[in-house]
Structures are given as C-alpha cells and as structure tokens.
Write a sequence for this structure.
C-alpha cells in the first residue's frame, strides 16, 4: 500500500466516527496501544521538547526502509504519533521525504499540529522527514 | 456585603456569547488575559474616531485633546493604585516591559555593586526572573531565591536569612500567576527597607482582583499589564517613587524623553516623560483608564467577594475528584492550579477545550516552580468578574467526563 493509500484508509476509518468524543476515544486508544519505547531509548538526543508535551523519536533504516519508534508523556499526543508511524513506517526514505502530510487537516485533529515551535507533534513530523533525508543521503542518524 | 450582578456584567462582554467547538464558551484563562468590555472597546474606537493625534507635540486642537485624554488616563491609573502623584506613573507596554525598564535603568545607574545581591522568589513568572538573572550575570551580583513551601507560600524565615546589607533589590510578585498565592508584600517591602534594598512588585495578577495601594505596600516600584485587567494588550504601567525616578537615568533614547538636544549634549526631560521615548500607545493608555473606571464602577470589594466565592467553589467541586491535587494555599486569588494523578495536563486540557472550556495547561512561564513541585505543568483555571457558579460546576463535570475518556 502506498503512503497515499494508507492515508485514505486512515481517513475512511476516522470518518466512521459520529462526533469528536468517538474520534478522541479512538486516538486515546491508539496512544495507549502504541508500544512504549524502551526506557534506554528515552534519551535527550531523541527528545523533541514541546511547550505542552514531550515526544521521543527514534529513527532507523532497516533493509532500506524507515523504521520509526516514538513515545510521549501525553496519551493524546501518543495517539497522534501512532497515526504518523502508521503512515510513514516501513516506507523508503524518498517516499517519506515526498509524502504529503496534509491528510492530517482532514482528520478533525488538526489543532494538534499548529505550526508553532512549541508543538512537539509538528516538530516530530518535521524530524521524521529530516531522518528520511539523512537516510536518503547516506547519513542515517 | 457588596455583590456583583454577574448577569449584567456578562452583557458587557460580547465575546462570551460565542460557541467553541459547538459548545458555549467557558473562559477560564483570565490569568493569561481577560476579555474586554464594550466600555473599553468603545474607548479605543472613539479615540481613533474622534481625537486621534500625536500627543505633546501639536498646537492643534486634536493633539491637545489626545494629550489631555492621555494625561487624564495617567491620573486615573495613579488614583487606582494610590500613587502620590500622576508623574509616578510611566506608561509601558506591560509588566515584562516595566520590569525590564527597571532592570535596565538600574544597570545603567551604577548603583548596583559587584558582590551585592538581588532577591526574587520561587513563585516568579519568567519575566520576573530572567531580567534579574541578566543583570546579575553582567554585574556579577548574586541572585538569591526565596524558597516556596509545600503549601505554595513563600518561606518567610528563609527570606529573613537571605536578605542582608548587600541586598540591592527585592523583586516579588504580589500574586502568583501559577498558584494564586498572595504574598505579604507589605512585610517583604518593609524588611527590604530595613537594609536599604529597593523593591519591585510584579502586580500582573493582582491588578484586576485586589485593592492596590502602593503607599501602604511601601514598594519602590509596582507594575502591571492592562490586558490582564480588561484593557487591550500592549499597554501597561510602571509606578515608581518620584524621588527615585528623578535620580535614575533614562531608559530608551528618542523623542519626548528629552529637554534639549544638541550634538554635544542632550538634557533629559523630567519623570515620567524621560522614560517614555517615542510615541506611546495613546489609545491603549486611554482604554486602560476606561478599564480601571469599569472595575471601579463595579467596586473592587464586590469583585473580590464574587471571585473568592467562585474560586472556593471550584476548589470544593474539583477537590472531590479522585486523584486530583490542587496546588497552593487555600486562600488563593485569581488562579487555581491542579493535576490529576496519571493524567497528563495537556490531555485533560485538550478534551476540556473540545467541551468549550478555555483553561491553561503547561508550566505557566514558571518552570522553576513546576520543578519545585516535581511536575512538568498543571491545569490552571483562572477567574474573572464574568465567571459564574454554573460554569464552575460544569467544569467539574467536564473534568469527570474527560477522565472517563482518558482512564
């Protein structure tokens, strides 16, 4: 499945929800179910510090594909992370770089991605792309 | 007991009628900024519509009208805080600007000597920490911090031990923006006086809630922001004792702050003008006076009665929620900060927003205070004249509903 197809599938799923409560309960569930990162990986160099919540992102390239692991102290942020990981994980670096992430505008969860420096999630999305750029140029983190 | 007719007050604040995420807005972020009544909006509009002109510069009628309105605003502010004379009130852009003004003129004055110290407290907003830190680094002064006790009040005994003959200045908030703690600033100032230290009081969180009397407080400087007291953003005031203002050097250089300029030597204007270089926020100053008149018309004692009943009710309702911790002493003013065990403040704040409740989450620009209590942040509900008991009750219900979703 391409990144675009994965995004469409995700939006179809989210559109099944009638109201914000269901939508958020779904995201909270995703956050709870996203595997916790190993405590040894929760280091400062993986930390993306937001004003409200903190995000840790670990990027690896396995057999030419990006493998992202991420965690947060906020469960809603973690649920949002799960959406990104689902879309971008196991994709080739160049596809991650080219990915149009505007799907998030249609999720009804857009307020979490306000483009401010204080927004850990927005910074994480940028960092995921940066990792892919480094991987593509042969300098993985 | 004076009482506030809240239903009528709410009619003065059109913004409160709107829906947020399809729900009736419940605005509980008043410590960040308050909403503006139509009386203030009208003052801003009529200034631009009727008398807009630059002040202190023109012989023409409009300039004179604008100058007189602006100076009348200064008098209103002086009366509101019981300054001895209007010349003790400097217009600034707000509290941060005021504190930086004081810090900078002290730095320039040469009064602060290497090896001296400045005392602040563990409750301070970053804007009453960083300017002093900067001056301490530059002039090699020691920055001493009055510790915060477990109940969110200041350790008075520690203050007495910290203060000494080398203390140059004590800078303390009147009321904590994070916890609503009310500091005994008259006592703090009197102890500072006993060692000839100057005092700067950050009144950002007290101006809309408390009766302010700079003379009975006995401070040398007192500052506040208009926008936290129903006035527009970008305007505030700094009170300073006239004798001090006369002695201290000017801040920024420019028009208005001078008496005479030649390329060899410039002589400076008298206070407050020597601290007001450039065209000020004329409309803002006039609107600020309108806001203070509005508060005066309602009566500060009626406001206090209403707000203290509200915040006590909030503490009572929220206190019944399982796992909820309220920070700060029980006698809080303005702000009520809390956390719920195992729940991130951001998650709870996000869900409350979806239900129309505007609260603040995070560190409230008080990172050292958050560290002191071992938290990355809190949720803060902060109250104003237009908040109702129904809103407080609904807040507690909305918190319960959010917890059901998060747990």
């Amino acid at each position: 499945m391409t990144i675009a197809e994965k995004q469409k599938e995700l939006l179809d799923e989210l559109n099944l929800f009638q109201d914000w409560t269901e939508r958020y309960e779904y995201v909270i569930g995703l956050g709870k179910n996203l595997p916790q990162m190993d405590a040894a990986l929760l280091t400062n160099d993986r930390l993306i510090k937001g004003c409200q919540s903190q995000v840790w992102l670990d990027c690896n390239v396995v057999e030419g594909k990006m493998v992202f692991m991420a965690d947060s102290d906020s469960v809603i942020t973690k649920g949002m992370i799960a959406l990104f990981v689902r879309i971008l994980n196991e994709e080739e670096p160049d596809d991650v770089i080219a990915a149009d992430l505007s799907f998030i505008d249609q999720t009804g969860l857009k307020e979490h991605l306000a483009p401010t420096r204080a927004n850990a999630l927005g910074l994480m999305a940028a960092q995921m792309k940066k990792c892919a750029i480094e991987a593509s140029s042969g300098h993985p983190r | 007991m004076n009482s506030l007719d809240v239903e009528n007050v709410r009619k003065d604040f059109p913004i409160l009628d709107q829906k947020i995420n399809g729900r009736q807005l419940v605005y509980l972020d008043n410590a960040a900024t308050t909403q503006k009544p139509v009386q203030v909006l009208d003052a801003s509009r009529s200034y631009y519509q009727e008398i807009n002109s630059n002040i202190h510069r023109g012989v023409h009628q409009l300039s004179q009208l604008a100058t007189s309105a602006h100076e009348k605003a200064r008098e209103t502010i002086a009366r509101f805080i019981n300054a001895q004379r209007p010349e003790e009130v400097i217009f600034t852009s707000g509290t941060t600007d005021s504190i930086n003004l004081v810090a900078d003129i002290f730095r320039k004055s040469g009064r602060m000597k290497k090896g001296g110290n400045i005392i602040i407290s563990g409750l301070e907003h970053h804007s009453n920490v960083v300017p002093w830190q900067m001056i301490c680094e530059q002039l090699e002064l020691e920055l001493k911090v009055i510790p915060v006790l477990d109940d969110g009040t200041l350790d008075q005994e520690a203050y007495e031990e910290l203060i000494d003959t080398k203390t140059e200045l004590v800078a303390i908030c009147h009321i904590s923006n994070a916890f609503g703690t009310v500091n005994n600033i008259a006592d703090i100032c009197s102890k500072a006086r006993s060692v000839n230290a100057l005092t700067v009081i950050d009144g950002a969180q007290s101006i809309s809630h408390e009766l302010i009397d700079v003379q009975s407080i006995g401070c040398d400087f007192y500052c506040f922001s208009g926008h936290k007291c129903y006035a527009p953003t970008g305007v505030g005031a700094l009170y300073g004792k006239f004798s001090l203002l006369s002695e201290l050097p000017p801040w920024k250089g420019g028009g208005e702050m001078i008496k005479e300029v030649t390329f060899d030597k410039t002589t400076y204007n008298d206070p407050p003008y020597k601290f007001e270089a450039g065209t000020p926020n004329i409309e803002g100053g006039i609107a600020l006076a309108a806001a203070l008149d509005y508060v005066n018309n309602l009566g500060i004692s009626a406001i206090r009665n209403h707000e203290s009943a509200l915040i006590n009710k909030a503490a009572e309702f929220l206190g019944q929620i399982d796992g909820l911790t309220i920070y700060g002493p029980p006698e809080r003013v303005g702000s009520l900060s809390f956390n719920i065990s195992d729940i991130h403040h951001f998650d709870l704040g996000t869900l409350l927003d979806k239900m129309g409740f505007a609260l603040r989450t995070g560190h409230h620009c008080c990172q050292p205070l958050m560290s002191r209590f071992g938290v990355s942040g809190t949720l803060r509900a902060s109250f104003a004249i237009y908040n109702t008991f129904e809103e407080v009750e609904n807040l507690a219900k909305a918190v319960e509903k959010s917890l059901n979703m998060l747990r």
About this structure: Residues 3-136 of chain A form a domain with the Sufe protein. Chain: A fold (CATH 3.90.1010.10).
